[in-house]
Amino acid sequence: MRASVAALLVLLFNCCAVAHAEVVNVYTSANFAPLVINHARGIYVDLVEHLNQQRLGDLTFKLTYLPRKRLQMKLEQGSMDGIVIGMMPQWLDDVGQKKYLWTAPFAVDRFVLVSRTGSGIDPNAAVSVSGRSIGLVLGYVYPGIDEWIARYGLVRNDALSEDINLEKLRLGRVDCVAVAESVARYYLKTHALSDQFQLADLPGQQTERRFLIPHSKAAVYDKLAPVIRRLKDDPVWQRSASKYQ
């Protein structure tokens, strides 16, 4: 009898725990390496898994893909039912960080110009890039780079993702590509192309990848923000992230 009562109490406890658990959708529009690789691994996938291992109260994080236009629409309409990974205040006209809650950066990147070795393309020489086609991601805003493109007269050629642009460059369908350095180096390394392409710095700020949290999810922010601040000193996370460098 006592065993039956004990088993019943354990069952009730587990049911209550499940009932109180909150699944937090972590949205991303990234579908390219090394951020997301085949929906199974990558920096974003590993980071969400790492957060779940931290056992942040009753929160369970779930990475969910959402096309950029739909993500933007949800943010503008105030209907975002989760948080967003890998965003930057400048991309959403929120430099003052008033529209949304922002964590500390969990990764710092920068944009580079990728072109074929020997192509003569130099981002600091207008004559070498004027009229050239540059691969960018459809719908993306590039602070500092957009102004450089207009000033130097490059022709924007959009694709759905950064790795598609790099593939177009490999096939000779664009002259150069503006892409995050981490993405470029991972692509060139995995395709053994490092000796065929060159990277050059582009104007603009560094890319600080952060979590965006709507004010309606302030309770999630309060639990998440301290963990993100500590990632730079977290050896487990640093080992995981180093796989994609």
Outline of this structure?
The protein is α/β, with parallel strands linked by helices and 245 residues long.
Gyration radius from CA atoms, angstroms = 21 Å
Uncertain parts: 5-19
Proportion in helices: 25-40%
Number of distinct beta strands = 11
What is the class of the largest domain in the CATH system?
Alpha Beta
Architecture per CATH nomenclature, i.e. the level-2 architecture of the largest domain: 3-Layer(aba) Sandwich
Protein name: Transporter substrate-binding domain-containing protein
Organism: Pseudoduganella rivuli
InterPro entries: Solute-binding_3/MltF_N
Keywords: Signal
Describe the structure.
The chain has 245 residues and is α/β, with parallel strands linked by helices. Helices cover 38% and strands 23% of the residues. It is built from nine helices and eleven strands. β7, α5 (145-152) and β8 (155-159) form a beta-alpha-beta unit. The longest helix is centred in the first third of the chain and has 19 residues, at 2-20.
What structural keywords apply?
245 residues, alpha/beta, D-Maltodextrin-Binding Protein, domain 2, Solute-binding_3/MltF_N, 11 strands, Transporter substrate-binding domain-containing protein, signal, 9 helices
